[in-house]
Specification:
The protein is of the alpha+beta class. It contains seven helices and eight strands. The strands form two sheets. It has a six-stranded mixed sheet with strand order 1-3-5-6-8-7, with helices on one face. Strands 2-4 form a two-stranded antiparallel sheet. It is globular, with a radius of gyration of 16 Å.
Length: 218
């Protein structure tokens, strides 16, 4: 998917794996109201709901910053494969082009797998839910920040949805949820901060949005 803000395509295309429209079967699962509130109506996708509900973190602890994280090596490509397989049926039901771009070189970071999974599921689900035509692209990248001489891992979710007005961007991560994203973005940003990360957003109203989770590649 070509970015509508003309971000340069970094890296050799031959060094990336691209998956497009690979269907996975739906499964029957038990739904959780608490998980529904966190994920912003992620219950539209039964497989995704199973993924969130099975290992969800306590929402009250997320908001107060008292979550007990389990830091361990996390294989980022494997995790994004799981996220994509969980949400792809929802994208296909809306006839959206669904793309997952992963580097061939293994990316492993020290982080909390459940927390990272919840953030990515929420970002990707919001993109699918708000996009009626066009495409969704999830991408994994490594970035060297020369000023700090640190390597960061970036998880980006790009869509061709309605976009967000500039005046709404300023309050996107406030406790009072944005009308289209629900409480998920606020809690996702809180969770990202617990992982020593942050969620960035670029959006053009009428064209689409790009949400990027940036974490230190420890």
């Amino acid at each position: 998917m070509r970015s509508w803000w003309h971000l340069p395509c970094r890296g050799d295309p031959e060094q990336r794996r691209i998956y497009v429209r690979c269907a996975v079967p739906n499964t029957t699962i038990n739904r959780s109201k608490e998980a529904l509130e966190f994920s912003g109506n992620i219950g539209e996708s039964p497989t995704a709901y199973s993924t969130v509900g099975k290992n969800r973190l306590d929402l009250a602890k997320i908001e107060t910053g008292s979550v007990e994280l389990k830091i361990e090596p996390v294989h980022c490509q494997e995790l994004l494969d799981e996220v994509a397989n969980a949400l792809r049926p929802l994208a296909e039901a809306k006839r959206l082009h669904f793309e997952l771009i992963l580097p061939i070189t293994k990316v492993i970071i020290q982080t909390d797998r459940q927390a990272l999974s919840q953030i990515l599921l929420n970002l990707a689900h919001n993109a699918i839910r708000c996009t009626e035509t066009g495409s969704i692209c999830i991408e994994l990248r490594r970035r060297l920040e020369s000023r700090r001489v640190k390597i960061f891992t970036e998880f980006s979710v790009e869509d061709t949805g309605p976009g967000i007005r500039p005046e709404e961007l300023t309050r996107l991560f406030h406790a009072r949820p944005h009308r289209s994203t629900g409480p998920g973005l606020y809690l996702s940003q809180k969770l990202a901060s617990l992982l020593d990360g942050r969620i960035e957003v670029m959006s053009v109203h009428g064209k689409g949005s790009l949400f990027r989770l940036v974490v230190l590649g420890k």
